[in-house]
Write a structure and sequence with these properties.
Oligomer: single chain
CATH architecture: 3-Layer(aba) Sandwich
CATH class: Alpha Beta
Low-confidence stretches: 16-50, 53-65
Number of helices: 13
Strand content: 5-15%
CATH topology: Rossmann fold
Helix content: 40-55%
Order of helices and strands: HEEEHEHEHHHHEHHHHEEHH
Number of strands: 8
């Protein structure tokens, strides 16, 4: 494990060197203007229906483990765990869903765009109506495999995300509480007050009551049964972990988010264009009180408060590293390539007003980054939800038109 993490640090440094080289190379290379691909449609100032502009005479480059891919996975659920970097992940997945014509299950009742939160119950009545099958679910929802399999199109794949429990707790705590002016370490002070904490039978408050985001909340969102949060039976917990883990095609790790995106790309047979993302951080903590270190005793107290979150994080973190090891050394070369390319794309979108063709490479096809691409790269969650809703409306209109045509024949 330590050697792998050292390797990441090494590759990150290498990425900076490669980035400078690529910046000089691409800046001094002339590319012909390309014809735009896809359909542009405007709605309240937004452009939808876009895909990557690719040269038709170029064959895509795939890694060895993708040679047998039949096509990209375009039917999935993302379990959007609060305060795990899931907002940034949403932006990547929403862009993919729009570009590939996916049909979103969009919350119809909740103004906060949550499908299910205090309860995992879910059916079609929770979504904006669709005349076809839902193929995309990326807003907040509690994992309910049985209900989601009924709701979604056949063959749905599942994506999860987890964050180290202590960092997740820190983020949730300061999201809900503003630091007191007279407190140097408000989080540590709070944990000191919980030093004698003893979890109840459920480990998350009373069943049937609103859930607490500070107690096993990641495990709950990912589908770990709430009734087992107070269990002390190691064999039961381990078997349940394996069951929950089997539901997911991949679980992203917040601390290794870009590495996770590359693994997602390989797992779902996507292109590197599909996982490009903005480098603008959505939430930045600048108050030193929010990053004050904790004592060993305070950390141990936190483990007592949310033990199942630690259990599930350790499980998915371990299986993540096992999978990256199986991918082989080329995986880390691809991570360096991706980080460098993504930096270059963001640099272009930030500093340039023109079009730029990014050449094909070992892990990517040639594509055009134009003003529309750059604008969308910086879109918010609200903008992407609006674009996906517009796409849903047009899909319903098309299905209605075809049905009417059949009935008239």
């Amino acid at each position: 494990m330590a050697s792998l993490r050292s390797r990441i640090l090494h590759f990150s440094c290498l990425a900076v060197v490669l980035y400078v080289g690529m910046l000089w190379s691409w800046k001094n290379t002339g590319f012909p203007a390309k014809r735009r691909y896809g359909e542009n449609r405007s709605h309240e100032g937004m452009i939808t229906g876009r895909g990557p502009t690719l040269r038709s005479d170029l064959s895509p480059s795939f890694t060895t483990n993708q040679a047998s891919c039949d096509g990209p996975v375009t039917n999935f659920v993302f379990i959007k765990v609060h305060k795990t970097g899931s907002g940034s992940t949403f932006l990547v997945l929403a862009r993919f869903g729009r570009n590939h014509g996916m049909t979103i299950c969009y919350p119809i009742h909740d103004k906060h765009r949550r499908l299910s939160y205090n309860s995992p119950n879910l059916d079609r009545s929770a979504c904006q109506p669709s005349l076809g099958n839902y193929t995309l679910l990326i807003n907040h929802a509690i994992m309910n495999k049985t209900a989601m399999d009924r709701l979604m199109a056949p063959g749905t794949r599942y994506i999860g995300i987890v964050r180290h429990p202590l960092e997740h707790f820190r983020s949730v705590f300061f999201y809900e509480n503003q630091p007191a002016k007279d407190s140097v370490n408000p989080l540590g002070k709070y944990l000191d007050s919980k030093v004698n904490y003893k979890p109840g039978r459920t480990g998350m408050g009373k069943l049937g009551k609103p859930v607490c985001q500070q107690k096993n909340f990641q495990a709950y969102t990912l589908g770990f049964p709430r009734k087992l949060f107070g269990s002390r039976k190691k064999s039961v917990l381990e078997e349940t972990l394996r069951t929950v883990g089997s539901w997911y095609s991949i679980v992203l790790i917040t601390e290794y988010w870009e590495e996770s995106l590359v693994l997602l790309r390989r797992t779902f047979c996507w292109t590197m264009y599909d996982i490009l993302h903005t480098t603008r951080r959505l939430h930045v903590q600048r108050d030193p009180k929010k990053s004050a270190p904790l004592t060993d005793k305070q950390i141990e107290t936190h483990r007592k408060i949310t033990p199942i979150d630690y259990l599930i994080y350790d499980y998915f973190n371990r299986t993540f590293w096992e999978r990256t090891t199986k991918e082989g050394p080329e995986f880390w070369d691809e991570v360096v390539y991706f980080k460098t390319l993504n930096l270059q794309v963001n640099n272009h979108c930030t500093l340039s007003q023109g079009d730029k063709v990014f050449p094909s490479g070992k892990w990517s096809r040639e594509f055009l980054a134009d003003s529309t691409f750059c604008e969308e790269l910086d879109w918010t969650t609200t903008q992407w939800n609006s674009a996906l809703l517009l796409q849903l409306e047009r899909q319903n209109e098309e299905i209605s038109r075809k049905q009417a045509q059949i009935e008239s024949e």
